[in-house]
Design brief:
The chain is an alpha+beta fold and about 130 residues long. The chain contains 3 helices and 5 strands, in the order βββαββαα. It has a domain of about 80 residues: GMP Synthetase, Chain A, domain 3, CATH 3.30.300.20. Helices cover about 30% and strands about 25% of the residues.
C-alpha cells in the first residue's frame, strides 16, 4: 500500500481508500459532523491497540494458546496544557490459567507493533498542493 486516496463524501466525512478498502471517518455532532464514524484521531489510536493485538494473536496462535479470554485495554494520558497524548498504556488482560512462562515474551511480541515503532521513529512529512 503506497497510495491512499482521501475523499470528502459529504458533511464532515473524510474517507481513505486504498486497495479494496475504505476507512470512513466523521466528526462528532458537536464538531460539525454526524458522528457516523470514528474521528481520524480515534482511528489512529485504534490502530495502536489493534496492531499490538495482531502480534499478541500471532504469538498465541504459534503456541496453540487460546485467545478467547484475552483482551488488550488501551489507556491514554494527555498533557493538560497542550491536550496532546503524553502516554499510551496497553494492558494485556490474561485469564488466570495463562502460562506464566509466556508473559514476558507476550509483552515483547506486543512491543513489535509496527504502528508503535513508527511512532518511536516517525517519518518525515511532506505536504504539497498539486493541480489536476
Amino acid at each position: 500500500m503506497s497510495e491512499m486516496v482521501i475523499s470528502f463524501p459529504g458533511g464532515a466525512r473524510v474517507d481513505a481508500q486504498f486497495g479494496s478498502y475504505t476507512i470512513r471517518t466523521d466528526q462528532p455532532q458537536q464538531g460539525g459532523g454526524n458522528g457516523s464514524a470514528p474521528t481520524p484521531f480515534a482511528t489512529f489510536l485504534a490502530s495502536i491497540g489493534t496492531c499490538a493485538g495482531i502480534y499478541v494473536l500471532g504469538f498465541c496462535r504459534q503456541r496453540g494458546l487460546p485467545t478467547e479470554n484475552i483482551r488488550l485495554v488501551q489507556r491514554l494520558e494527555a498533557n493538560p496544557l497542550t491536550g496532546m497524548v503524553s502516554k499510551i498504556a496497553l494492558d494485556i488482560q490474561l485469564p488466570p490459567d495463562f502460562p506464566e512462562k509466556y508473559r514476558p515474551a507476550l509483552i515483547r511480541s506486543a512491543e513489535q507493533c509496527a504502528v508503535k515503532k513508527h511512532m518511536e521513529h516517525p517519518p518525515q512529512f511532506e505536504i504539497n498542493t498539486v493541480t489536476v
